[in-house]
Write a structure and sequence with these properties.
MOCS2B (chains A, B); homodimer; about 25% helix; about 35% strand; five-stranded antiparallel sheet; about 180 residues; transferase activity (chains A, B); alpha+beta; transferase (chains A, B); molybdenum cofactor biosynthesis (chains A, B)
Chain lengths: ~180, ~180
């Protein structure tokens, strides 16, 4: 869990020639919003739009009081999948120039940020649609588990941090543990 | 243009009882993204989503090279309209708890941020839809002009920073100046 990754790869699996235009991070810290914004707005003088989404730990889930979350994942695969999602996003939204996808590992208290995605583009609709695509795909595809820790005697549950959709279940990752 | 406004009003024109849940700013600086995020994620333990959009000065408009923008507005009216937009947004997206709408006045070079809007909500779709609503309405309703300054002999043009839509033209604000 202590392994940290900060990766700004070339867009190897895309036909784009741009380099260092994707920021992927899976680690025990998230990049600051200022650094995300600086990354998304740098070297893109033709882009008028930056869109960012941040996922936050909520204090409840299905009526139970959540006090803390823990995230755990197989980091190399998570990084590969985030990179693939960014390449897919660029193919779907060709105006987008730069993309960020970062996920926290480890503890995340209520109110803390666990995930940040975003992008830039010349005009705003494309940036906002692409940001929505990034977070939807991240939730659906990235192999990161979360452990919800509940107040009192409710214990905790490890869950896939995934929103499997009909027909998309390609992996089996089930891990449940009541303490 | 030197006047600065930082306003966190109660939601006077809404039926919501929450206070200090709207951050409006029209001034020669924008709030930092960290402060926007801190505002949007504070005191909202039931909210799992923060969405932010930043508008950036582009280097081109209709084939002309833009070197700089200047923004000018009647600040009290701009603040009132931003506040009204936030109240409208909350009525349309009742899960949203906190909102930000800030616009720069004065100079904004290429690559600089001129506007930031955002909100939080329990789930992500509502936050992202509401953010889109905020920037669409801001562009359509807020009385702020922009002066595009072009490279070389192309001069400059004052424009409404507005996207008038069919049937919504309630004000007449036209101001054009070729230098």
């Amino acid at each position: 869990m202590a392994t940290k990754y900060l990766k700004m790869p070339n867009d190897e699996s895309s036909s784009s020639s741009s380099s260092s235009s994707i920021l992927i991070q899976v680690s025990e810290t998230l990049p600051s919003l200022e650094s995300v914004h600086d990354f998304l707005s740098s070297s893109s003088p033709g882009c008028g739009a930056v869109s960012v989404f941040v996922g936050i730990t909520r204090n409840n889930f299905e009526g139970k009081v959540v006090t803390n979350l823990e995230y755990e994942g197989y980091t190399p695969m998570a990084i590969r999948e985030l990179h693939a999602i960014c390449c897919d996003a660029r193919a779907m939204y060709p105006g987008v120039e730069r993309l960020v996808a970062a996920h926290l590992l480890g503890d995340c208290p209520v109110g803390g940020a666990s995930v940040v995605v975003g992008c830039n583009s010349p005009h705003r609709k494309e940036a906002m649609r692409c940001t929505e695509y990034l977070i939807d795909e991240l939730k659906a595809r990235v192999p990161i588990w979360k452990k919800e820790i509940y107040e009192g005697d409710e214990g905790s549950v490890w869950k896939e941090n995934l929103e499997w959709r009909e027909g998309r279940r390609r992996r089996v990752m089930a891990k449940e543990n009541h303490v």
